[in-house]
Write a structure and sequence with these properties.
mainly alpha, two-stranded parallel sheet, 78% helix
Protein backbone atom coordinates (compact mmCIF):
# COMPACT_ATOMS: atom_id res chain seq x y z
CA UNK A 1 0.00 0.00 0.00
CA UNK A 2 1.31 3.39 -1.02
CA UNK A 3 0.52 5.54 2.02
CA UNK A 4 1.01 8.84 0.18
CA UNK A 5 -1.40 7.73 -2.54
CA UNK A 6 -4.01 6.61 -0.01
CA UNK A 7 -4.00 9.95 1.80
CA UNK A 8 -3.76 11.76 -1.57
CA UNK A 9 -0.87 13.92 -0.43
CA UNK A 10 -0.30 14.96 -4.06
CA UNK A 11 -3.58 16.92 -3.80
CA UNK A 12 -2.52 19.04 -0.83
CA UNK A 13 1.18 18.79 0.05
CA UNK A 14 2.48 21.53 -2.23
CA UNK A 15 -0.76 23.29 -3.18
CA UNK A 16 -1.83 23.92 0.43
CA UNK A 17 1.11 23.43 2.80
CA UNK A 18 3.46 25.76 0.90
CA UNK A 19 1.00 28.71 0.67
CA UNK A 20 -0.06 28.30 4.31
CA UNK A 21 3.58 28.33 5.37
CA UNK A 22 3.93 31.61 3.45
CA UNK A 23 0.97 33.05 5.38
CA UNK A 24 2.75 32.08 8.60
CA UNK A 25 6.04 33.66 7.50
CA UNK A 26 4.23 36.84 6.44
CA UNK A 27 2.36 37.04 9.77
CA UNK A 28 5.71 36.99 11.58
CA UNK A 29 7.06 39.63 9.19
CA UNK A 30 4.22 42.13 9.68
CA UNK A 31 4.45 41.51 13.45
CA UNK A 32 8.09 42.67 13.22
CA UNK A 33 9.24 39.55 15.07
CA UNK A 34 12.20 37.33 14.29
CA UNK A 35 11.51 34.28 12.15
CA UNK A 36 13.21 31.82 14.51
CA UNK A 37 10.96 32.77 17.43
CA UNK A 38 7.87 31.28 15.80
CA UNK A 39 9.05 28.97 13.02
CA UNK A 40 8.57 25.85 15.16
CA UNK A 41 5.02 26.95 15.91
CA UNK A 42 4.38 27.36 12.18
CA UNK A 43 5.69 23.83 11.70
CA UNK A 44 3.29 22.60 14.39
CA UNK A 45 0.32 24.29 12.70
CA UNK A 46 1.36 22.81 9.35
CA UNK A 47 1.50 19.33 10.91
CA UNK A 48 -1.95 19.95 12.39
CA UNK A 49 -3.25 20.93 8.95
CA UNK A 50 -1.69 17.80 7.47
CA UNK A 51 -3.65 15.69 9.96
CA UNK A 52 -6.80 17.47 8.79
CA UNK A 53 -5.92 17.00 5.11
CA UNK A 54 -5.39 13.27 5.69
CA UNK A 55 -8.78 13.07 7.41
CA UNK A 56 -10.47 14.84 4.49
CA UNK A 57 -8.81 12.63 1.85
CA UNK A 58 -9.76 9.39 3.59
CA UNK A 59 -13.29 10.54 4.43
CA UNK A 60 -13.94 11.64 0.84
CA UNK A 61 -12.64 8.36 -0.58
CA UNK A 62 -14.75 6.26 1.78
CA UNK A 63 -17.96 8.24 1.31
CA UNK A 64 -17.51 8.55 -2.48
CA UNK A 65 -16.78 4.86 -2.97
CA UNK A 66 -20.20 3.88 -4.34
CA UNK A 67 -20.32 6.85 -6.73
CA UNK A 68 -16.78 6.19 -7.97
CA UNK A 69 -17.56 2.53 -8.69
CA UNK A 70 -20.79 3.46 -10.46
CA UNK A 71 -18.97 6.04 -12.60
CA UNK A 72 -16.16 3.60 -13.42
CA UNK A 73 -13.50 5.81 -11.81
CA UNK A 74 -12.43 3.09 -9.36
CA UNK A 75 -12.92 -0.60 -8.79
CA UNK A 76 -14.65 -1.97 -5.70
CA UNK A 77 -12.02 -2.28 -2.97
CA UNK A 78 -11.58 -5.50 -0.96
CA UNK A 79 -13.10 -5.46 2.53
CA UNK A 80 -9.70 -5.60 4.23
CA UNK A 81 -8.53 -2.51 2.32
CA UNK A 82 -11.67 -0.58 3.26
CA UNK A 83 -11.22 -1.60 6.91
CA UNK A 84 -7.60 -0.41 6.81
CA UNK A 85 -8.69 2.99 5.50
CA UNK A 86 -11.30 3.32 8.22
CA UNK A 87 -8.57 2.57 10.77
CA UNK A 88 -6.37 5.28 9.23
CA UNK A 89 -9.29 7.69 9.34
CA UNK A 90 -9.74 7.04 13.07
CA UNK A 91 -6.01 7.62 13.64
CA UNK A 92 -6.18 10.94 11.77
CA UNK A 93 -9.12 12.05 13.94
CA UNK A 94 -7.15 11.14 17.08
CA UNK A 95 -4.18 13.17 15.81
CA UNK A 96 -6.53 16.06 15.17
CA UNK A 97 -7.80 15.87 18.76
CA UNK A 98 -4.21 16.01 20.02
CA UNK A 99 -3.57 19.09 17.88
CA UNK A 100 -6.73 20.74 19.22
CA UNK A 101 -5.57 20.14 22.78
CA UNK A 102 -2.54 22.40 22.28
CA UNK A 103 -4.80 25.13 20.88
CA UNK A 104 -7.43 25.18 23.64
CA UNK A 105 -5.94 28.23 25.40
CA UNK A 106 -6.37 30.22 22.18
CA UNK A 107 -10.14 29.99 21.71
CA UNK A 108 -10.27 31.72 18.31
CA UNK A 109 -7.59 29.47 16.80
CA UNK A 110 -9.20 26.41 18.41
CA UNK A 111 -12.55 27.19 16.77
CA UNK A 112 -10.94 28.05 13.43
CA UNK A 113 -9.06 24.74 13.47
CA UNK A 114 -12.12 22.73 14.54
CA UNK A 115 -14.39 24.22 11.86
CA UNK A 116 -12.91 22.37 8.82
CA UNK A 117 -13.26 19.00 10.58
CA UNK A 118 -16.97 19.62 11.06
CA UNK A 119 -17.46 21.19 7.63
CA UNK A 120 -15.87 18.30 5.75
CA UNK A 121 -17.93 15.79 7.73
CA UNK A 122 -21.06 17.63 6.59
CA UNK A 123 -19.57 17.93 3.10
CA UNK A 124 -19.00 14.20 2.69
CA UNK A 125 -21.37 12.22 4.89
CA UNK A 126 -25.12 11.70 4.26
CA UNK A 127 -27.76 12.84 4.88
CA UNK A 128 -26.38 16.40 4.71
CA UNK A 129 -23.63 15.69 2.13
CA UNK A 130 -23.05 19.28 1.07
CA UNK A 131 -20.97 18.01 -1.85
CA UNK A 132 -24.23 17.35 -3.72
CA UNK A 133 -25.94 20.59 -2.72
CA UNK A 134 -24.71 22.96 -5.40
CA UNK A 135 -23.09 26.20 -4.30
CA UNK A 136 -23.14 25.13 -0.64
CA UNK A 137 -20.75 22.32 -1.49
CA UNK A 138 -18.39 24.72 -3.26
CA UNK A 139 -18.39 27.17 -0.34
CA UNK A 140 -17.95 24.36 2.20
CA UNK A 141 -14.94 22.91 0.39
CA UNK A 142 -13.36 26.32 -0.15
CA UNK A 143 -13.87 27.30 3.49
CA UNK A 144 -12.58 24.02 4.86
CA UNK A 145 -9.60 23.70 2.53
CA UNK A 146 -8.35 27.30 2.37
CA UNK A 147 -10.33 29.90 4.34
CA UNK A 148 -10.13 28.40 7.83
CA UNK A 149 -6.55 27.03 7.51
CA UNK A 150 -5.28 30.43 6.39
CA UNK A 151 -7.14 32.19 9.19
CA UNK A 152 -5.94 29.75 11.85
CA UNK A 153 -2.35 30.31 10.72
CA UNK A 154 -2.75 34.08 11.19
CA UNK A 155 -4.55 33.87 14.54
CA UNK A 156 -2.36 31.16 16.09
CA UNK A 157 0.96 32.75 15.07
CA UNK A 158 -0.25 36.13 16.38
CA UNK A 159 -1.28 34.50 19.66
CA UNK A 160 2.05 32.67 19.94
CA UNK A 161 3.91 35.97 19.45
CA UNK A 162 1.62 37.69 22.01
CA UNK A 163 0.57 40.18 19.34
CA UNK A 164 -2.90 41.44 18.60
CA UNK A 165 -4.27 40.11 15.34
CA UNK A 166 -3.83 42.55 12.48
CA UNK A 167 -7.50 42.67 11.42
CA UNK A 168 -6.75 43.95 7.91
CA UNK A 169 -4.27 41.12 7.39
CA UNK A 170 -6.67 38.55 8.87
CA UNK A 171 -9.55 39.63 6.59
CA UNK A 172 -7.33 39.85 3.50
CA UNK A 173 -5.94 36.34 4.07
CA UNK A 174 -9.47 35.05 4.66
CA UNK A 175 -10.85 36.59 1.46
CA UNK A 176 -7.84 35.39 -0.54
CA UNK A 177 -8.15 31.88 0.87
CA UNK A 178 -11.88 31.69 0.17
CA UNK A 179 -11.45 32.83 -3.44
CA UNK A 180 -8.51 30.49 -4.01
CA UNK A 181 -10.48 27.64 -2.47
CA UNK A 182 -13.50 28.27 -4.70
CA UNK A 183 -11.24 28.30 -7.75
CA UNK A 184 -9.68 25.02 -6.64
CA UNK A 185 -12.94 23.14 -6.08
CA UNK A 186 -14.41 24.46 -9.35
CA UNK A 187 -11.37 23.08 -11.16
CA UNK A 188 -11.83 19.67 -9.51
CA UNK A 189 -15.54 19.63 -10.31
CA UNK A 190 -14.88 20.59 -13.93
CA UNK A 191 -12.34 17.80 -14.22
CA UNK A 192 -14.86 15.30 -12.86
CA UNK A 193 -17.94 16.74 -14.59
CA UNK A 194 -18.52 13.90 -17.05
CA UNK A 195 -18.11 11.14 -14.47
CA UNK A 196 -20.32 13.04 -12.02
CA UNK A 197 -23.03 13.30 -14.67
CA UNK A 198 -22.70 9.57 -15.33
CA UNK A 199 -22.99 8.68 -11.65
CA UNK A 200 -25.74 11.23 -10.93
CA UNK A 201 -23.63 13.33 -8.56
CA UNK A 202 -25.30 16.76 -8.31
CA UNK A 203 -22.28 19.04 -7.97
CA UNK A 204 -22.37 22.81 -8.54
CA UNK A 205 -20.66 22.55 -11.95
CA UNK A 206 -23.23 20.02 -13.18
CA UNK A 207 -26.08 22.47 -12.53
CA UNK A 208 -24.36 25.55 -13.96
CA UNK A 209 -24.54 26.80 -17.55
CA UNK A 210 -21.24 27.72 -19.30
CA UNK A 211 -22.20 31.42 -19.37
CA UNK A 212 -22.92 31.61 -15.64
CA UNK A 213 -19.81 29.59 -14.87
CA UNK A 214 -17.63 32.11 -16.72
CA UNK A 215 -19.12 35.00 -14.71
CA UNK A 216 -18.59 33.15 -11.43
CA UNK A 217 -14.98 32.39 -12.33
CA UNK A 218 -14.19 36.01 -13.20
CA UNK A 219 -15.75 37.30 -9.96
CA UNK A 220 -13.77 34.77 -7.92
CA UNK A 221 -10.51 35.65 -9.68
CA UNK A 222 -11.14 39.37 -9.13
CA UNK A 223 -11.66 38.77 -5.39
CA UNK A 224 -8.50 36.67 -5.22
CA UNK A 225 -6.34 39.26 -7.01
CA UNK A 226 -7.69 42.19 -4.98
CA UNK A 227 -7.14 40.29 -1.73
CA UNK A 228 -3.60 39.42 -2.76
CA UNK A 229 -2.89 43.06 -3.58
CA UNK A 230 -4.07 44.06 -0.09
CA UNK A 231 -1.85 41.36 1.43
CA UNK A 232 1.20 42.59 -0.48
CA UNK A 233 0.40 46.19 0.48
CA UNK A 234 0.31 45.21 4.17
CA UNK A 235 3.61 43.30 3.88
CA UNK A 236 5.33 46.26 2.17
CA UNK A 237 8.43 44.49 0.87
CA UNK A 238 10.30 45.27 -2.34
CA UNK A 239 11.66 41.71 -2.47
CA UNK A 240 8.10 40.29 -2.43
CA UNK A 241 7.14 42.59 -5.32
CA UNK A 242 10.32 41.65 -7.18
CA UNK A 243 9.45 37.97 -6.92
CA UNK A 244 5.94 38.67 -8.20
CA UNK A 245 7.56 40.30 -11.24
CA UNK A 246 9.90 37.29 -11.58
CA UNK A 247 6.88 34.98 -11.55
CA UNK A 248 5.23 36.96 -14.34
CA UNK A 249 8.49 36.87 -16.29
CA UNK A 250 8.75 33.11 -15.67
CA UNK A 251 5.22 32.61 -17.04
CA UNK A 252 6.00 34.68 -20.15
CA UNK A 253 9.27 32.88 -20.90
CA UNK A 254 7.68 29.48 -20.34
CA UNK A 255 4.93 30.36 -22.80
CA UNK A 256 7.45 31.53 -25.41
CA UNK A 257 9.72 28.52 -24.98
CA UNK A 258 7.29 25.70 -24.23
CA UNK A 259 3.90 27.10 -25.24
CA UNK A 260 2.53 26.54 -21.73
CA UNK A 261 -0.75 28.41 -21.33
CA UNK A 262 -2.37 29.79 -18.21
CA UNK A 263 -5.92 28.90 -17.19
CA UNK A 264 -8.10 30.36 -14.45
CA UNK A 265 -10.01 27.16 -13.71
CA UNK A 266 -10.73 24.89 -16.65
CA UNK A 267 -8.01 22.74 -18.16
CA UNK A 268 -6.98 23.09 -21.77
CA UNK A 269 -7.40 20.32 -24.33
CA UNK A 270 -3.94 18.97 -23.55
CA UNK A 271 -1.72 18.91 -20.49
CA UNK A 272 0.41 21.92 -21.46
CA UNK A 273 -1.25 24.43 -19.13
CA UNK A 274 -0.92 25.74 -15.58
CA UNK A 275 -3.41 27.34 -13.19
CA UNK A 276 -2.71 31.07 -12.98
CA UNK A 277 -0.75 32.11 -9.86
CA UNK A 278 -0.13 28.49 -8.81
CA UNK A 279 3.65 28.66 -8.88
CA UNK A 280 3.61 32.09 -7.26
CA UNK A 281 1.70 30.86 -4.20
CA UNK A 282 3.66 27.61 -3.98
CA UNK A 283 7.19 28.79 -4.82
CA UNK A 284 7.82 32.50 -5.36
CA UNK A 285 5.75 33.87 -2.44
CA UNK A 286 7.12 31.72 0.42
CA UNK A 287 10.69 31.78 -0.91
CA UNK A 288 10.66 35.58 -1.28
CA UNK A 289 9.50 35.97 2.32
CA UNK A 290 12.22 33.65 3.62
CA UNK A 291 14.85 35.38 1.49
CA UNK A 292 13.75 38.71 2.94
CA UNK A 293 14.19 37.31 6.47
CA UNK A 294 17.58 35.83 5.54
CA UNK A 295 18.92 39.22 4.45
CA UNK A 296 18.10 40.83 7.78
CA UNK A 297 17.97 38.14 10.49
CA UNK A 298 20.84 35.80 11.42
CA UNK A 299 19.89 32.15 11.16
CA UNK A 300 16.84 32.68 8.94
CA UNK A 301 18.73 31.17 6.01
CA UNK A 302 18.51 27.80 7.80
CA UNK A 303 14.71 27.96 7.54
CA UNK A 304 15.02 28.91 3.86
CA UNK A 305 17.16 25.84 3.18
CA UNK A 306 14.79 23.55 5.10
CA UNK A 307 11.81 24.96 3.20
CA UNK A 308 13.54 24.32 -0.13
CA UNK A 309 14.33 20.75 0.94
CA UNK A 310 10.72 20.09 1.91
CA UNK A 311 9.46 20.96 -1.57
CA UNK A 312 12.56 20.26 -3.67
CA UNK A 313 10.89 17.68 -5.92
CA UNK A 314 8.18 20.12 -6.97
CA UNK A 315 10.76 22.86 -7.49
CA UNK A 316 12.88 20.57 -9.66
CA UNK A 317 9.85 19.55 -11.73
CA UNK A 318 8.87 23.19 -12.18
CA UNK A 319 12.30 24.50 -13.20
CA UNK A 320 13.81 21.45 -14.93
CA UNK A 321 13.06 22.90 -18.36
CA UNK A 322 14.83 26.13 -17.35
CA UNK A 323 18.01 24.24 -16.43
CA UNK A 324 17.77 22.25 -19.65
CA UNK A 325 17.32 25.39 -21.73
CA UNK A 326 20.27 27.12 -20.03
CA UNK A 327 22.48 24.09 -20.68
CA UNK A 328 21.47 23.92 -24.35
CA UNK A 329 22.10 27.67 -24.76
CA UNK A 330 25.47 27.43 -23.03
CA UNK A 331 26.57 24.54 -25.25
CA UNK A 332 25.44 26.46 -28.30
CA UNK A 333 27.39 29.56 -27.28
CA UNK A 334 30.52 27.55 -26.49
CA UNK A 335 30.29 25.67 -29.76
CA UNK A 336 30.03 28.95 -31.66
CA UNK A 337 32.99 30.40 -29.80
CA UNK A 338 35.32 27.55 -30.77
CA UNK A 339 34.41 27.56 -34.45
Amino acid sequence: MDFRKVIRSHDWWTSKIAPFSAVGYATIFISEATLLTAVLWILYILLSLMAGATYVSLLNDLTDMDCDVKAGKKELLPTRVVARRWAMLIVSVMLGLVCMFFLYRDLLSFLLYLAPWIIFYLYSVPPVRLKERGVWGVLADAAGAHFFPGCVMVSSVSHFLHHQINISWFLAVGAWGLALGVRGILWHQLRDRETDLHSGLNTFIVTLSPGKLKKVIMIVLLLEVLSLMVMLFIIKSLIILLFLFLYLLFVLVRYKVRGTRLTIVASAEDDNYRMVMTEYYEIFFPVSLLLNFSLHQPGAWVVLILHLLLFYRYYLDTFRWVFRQVRVSAISVMSGAFK
